[in-house]
Amino acid sequence: MFRCLPLCAALLAPLAQAEEAAASLLLHNARIYTVDADQPWAEALAIGEEGEILAVGSRAEVEEYADDDTELVDLGGRLVLPGFQDSHAHVLDASSEAQGDCPLQSDDTLEQWLDEIGECADAAKGEWLLGSGFALNTLLEAGASPRALLDEISTDLPIAIMEETSHSYWLNSKALQLAGFDGERDDPEGGVILRDPQGKATGVVLDNAGDLVMDKALPPSKALQQLYYQAVLDGQDELARNGITSVADARVFWRRGHLEAWQKAAREDRLKARTSLGLWAYPQLDDGEQLAELKSLYQPGDEDELLHVTQIKLYVDGIVHNTTARLRQPYQHSLAGVDPRGLYYFPPERLKLYARELAAAGFDLHIHTIGDQAVRDALDAIEQAGRGRHRLTHVELVDQADIPRFRQLGVIADFQPSPYFTPSFLKDNQPLIGQRAYQMLPMRALYDSGARVTLSSDWDVNPLSPLGIMQNALGLGSRGLPDLAAAIRAYTLDAAYTLRQEARTGSLEVGKQADLLVLDRDIFKLPPSQIGQAKVLWTLLGGEEVYRAAEF
Q1: Which of 146, 182, 314, 390 allows an S-S link to 177, with CB 3.0 to 4.6 Å?
Q2: φ, ψ for residue 372 (rounded to 5)?
């Protein structure tokens, strides 16, 4: 009988380990950027049967995990990155036909919009005509009554067109009537009904007033439920095509049936990304009833499950360009009917109540803050609620005194540096907020302060591509991130921390899940202005292919 002495056993142990953990897939001849500080670069990677990373390193090191059944993939020197994690996207809404079948282009003229809407009205088959994409300033600067312009198209068919940022709606008289906005009434919580000097609704409503219109236009139905489900499925393909292996849907309208659509897709194993849902906190609902309902929907799930209901999406304020972002000092010019310092969806004390109650129930808070007063209010609410993986998203204006509080409180700063944040965009805001316009998006200041910074898309307000967002983040000069490594980390490991999965994803390390992507070119060798031109060729989720480009 053969006996292995201690020295013999020590020599054979690595072989036994490799045999027990043989790789199902081995990637080699690659430039692998791991986002692991201890081993930033590698040339090969072995993936086990359960989707876990068995080895990262040189080909010689990794080949020890191969056997006759291992699939070897020669990547031809291409760049491999951890899968992107988009911590703020509107997957269902961006993919849903329920949002309307009358798309407009924001840079078209008013006359072009009216022609498009007229054609849509002629072809309309539903009870409402819904569309999206107009630019608020273009509409208001035309000087004509927005309501009357749509009434010329139809007074019988309710028409509701969402502005390009989703923070305002353009309505005809029928839509105003059905929404209950046509007579004299107070503005709804978190919203404004713009009115003319005689007190008549002009046909433009802001922020939560628009959401209330959509609640009227989209009452729950079996047909809509199927549309939402299909939107979830369609969204999966877009995520995978862009190399996104984890996502947070940032506004789940649970009263419209969005949550059920996600849950059905998860039950049927149709998801292609690890998903965290942010349940929408409705400003108009009773606090006691809503808080109880939200707590009942908390669903952390097991770590192996792809769907988790663990976040709450709260809006504090609106946006700068329709003067609803909440500011510490008044606007130089604001829309008639809007508070000179902007509006509140959730004013400070109510925000503290929700933060305290929902954080105690286990939720992480995802708080929309654009104005500097909104940022301060949200930080105050988080400070009294206690630590968690809470984040403020957008953070376009931040008072200097609040910069260090992000790091002190462990609050994540989540940015979406879209194509809008160009010098001309900042200049366009100067008439509204003066020199504060040139202090917008203080990404570098927060990064340099030691705060955790993430990048995300806010799809479909912005394009989904993480590569495009990273390009923008590096193109902001002194306000942007310092280098490509920081941008990648913001879309991978730091985003994974935000989603409570940094121990399993976010970097390519032994023991973590093989969530990764392959690019057609090495973005480390490109000028920052060309990063967005790179294309994802291959996306793996837990070692399983979820996207492959036709040319790969």
Answers
A1: 182
A2: -70, -30
CATH of the domain at 520: 3.20.20.140
pLDDT in tens, 12-46: 344 444 455 899 999 999 999 999 999 999 999 99
101 belongs to a structural domain: no
Q: Which residue has the tokens 């606007």?
A: 331
3: how many CB neighbours lie within 10 A of its CB? Answer: 6
Q: Where do runs of H (alpha helix) occur along 206-314?
A: 208-217, 222-241, 258-267, 287-296
What percent of the chain has pLDDT above 90? 88
Burial 235-263 (b: 16+ CB within 10 A, else e): bbebbbbbbbbbbbbbbbbbebbbbebbb
123: Cα within 13 Å, side-chain hemisphere:
11
Residue 129: strand pairing partners: 159
Residue recorded with tokens 């009227």: 216
Q: Is position 23 within any domain? A: yes
Range of the domain at 268: 85-91+221-539
Bridge partners of 516, per DSSP, are 82, 540
Check the CA dihedral 204-207-208-211 and report its sign: positive
Query: Within this chain, do residues 283 and 175 fall inside the same structural domain, yes or no?
Result: no
Same domain, 68 and 123: no
Question: How many domains, the chain?
Answer: 3
Does residue 289 contact residue 340 with C-beta atoms inside 8 Å? Answer: no
Which pLDDT tens digit goes with each residue over 349-360? Answer: 999 999 999 999
In the structure encoding, which two tokens stand for residue 395, read together?
């953070």
| 360-394 per-position pLDDT tens digit | 999 999 999 999 999 999 999 999 998 799 999 99
Q: Is residue 546 part of a domain?
A: no
